[in-house]
Amino acid sequence: MARCSPPLLRRLFCCAAKSASAAGAGAGGTSKKNIVFLGSPQVAASVLETLLVASESPDSAFQVAAVVTQPPAAKNRGRKLMPSAVAQLALDRGFPGDLIFTPERAGEEAFLSDLKEVRPELCITAAYGNILPQRFLDIPPYGTVNIHPSLLPLYRGAAPVQRALQDGVEETGVSLAYTVRALDAGPVIASEKFTVDEYIKAPELLAILFNLGSKLLLRELPSILDGSAKEKAKPQDDSKVTHAPKLNSDESWLSFNQEAKLLHNKHTHPCYCQPTLVGWPGTRAKLQLVNQNGEPDVLEIKVISTKACASCDKTRDGNEVLFSGNSLLIPCGGSSCLEVVELQLPGKKVTTARDFWNGLRGQKLLKSPWCYPKTRPKLLAS
């Protein structure tokens, strides 16, 4: 029926049985509506699993007719091409390999032709990672619906969870919205709020939000498939838009002239848009190590876990890094201190601040006099 794009992908994916009776395949003679799922990383695979399980119910109104995901990527030291988490889940569930599409771009003619053959009545996206052209959006009569991990119109873009945590929000959530050509700007069908605490990390929060999104999707699917969701969906208020651009490696550097709370929030940076780099980019800092002869050297560390202290008792030089309890105390802007509990030196394993401090053997530690690229300003609607 449908085609796997490059020959290599055909060998990878089409080795699975092509029986239409496999899990989720469009069996003839059924009245169930065809849904096509688009997603790539592990959080999206959890959504696909929810849909596949729900579709197997005897009274289900839909079936997963095809899966669209990113092409295999080179992973690990061997740089072996590996399927995305979504593709792997589909294969593990016995989904027909020729109904797993991996186009480089969603606007490819061959892919759009294959998609039309599937006759999808609805497309669902969750962290797919590819721009959908209008020619794609015109295919499913019930539209394309996206699970977006923010309370739209807040944090439109590639890194909504990471940016929200970086901004220190106390509440976020997940939205179910129709996809339009403008980025994450479609009418919102429904949303679910979630309270954020200061210790939660981006991967954990992403998993929670996509789990909530899966449940929200199943709850709203009947109205989406009968068309009534389009009438109740609410347009987004463009005056309240904020943006969540993709992270870049420069943002991982800490600049200690900023307040400790802002630096602490940077630990929520790991980026789900790059599923092969779960902890990317992390947070890094440069300190000055001064030996007993007063000779300075630059020490680069990766900061693993921190606490933010609103006030810092600087009994010594305001640039000196002290040790108290189980933490390094690094002076920051506004008389605050960043407490570094765990860190990692280049080529070494993660260590506690206490073990690191003991290893200094009397050497003095200063915060770096250099400043690094500033963190992203909050981007409001233009």
From TrEMBL:
EC number: 2.1.2.9
Name of the protein described by the UniProt record: Methionyl-tRNA formyltransferase, mitochondrial
Entry-linked Gene3D superfamilies: 3.40.50.12230
Source domain of life: Eukaryota
Organism: Oryza glumipatula
Recorded GO MF terms: methionyl-tRNA formyltransferase activity
Name of a matching Pfam family: Formyl_trans_N
InterPro entries membership: Fmt, Formyl_trans_C, Formyl_transf_N, Formyl_transf_N_sf, Formyl_transferase-like_C_sf, Met-tRNA-FMT_C, Met-tRNA-FMT_N
UniProt cross-references to PANTHER family, sorted A to Z: METHIONYL-TRNA FORMYLTRANSFERASE, METHIONYL-TRNA FORMYLTRANSFERASE, MITOCHONDRIAL
GO cellular component, one term: mitochondrion
Enzyme class, UniProt record, top EC level: transferase
Keyword Transferase on entry: yes
Record keywords, A-Z: Protein biosynthesis, Transferase
Record keyword RNA-binding present: no
Residue ranges of every copy of the Formyl transferase N-terminal domain listed in the record: 34-204
Record-stated family: Belongs to the Fmt family.
SUPFAM superfamilies: FMT C-terminal domain-like, Formyltransferase
Domain Formyl transferase C-terminal: 247-360
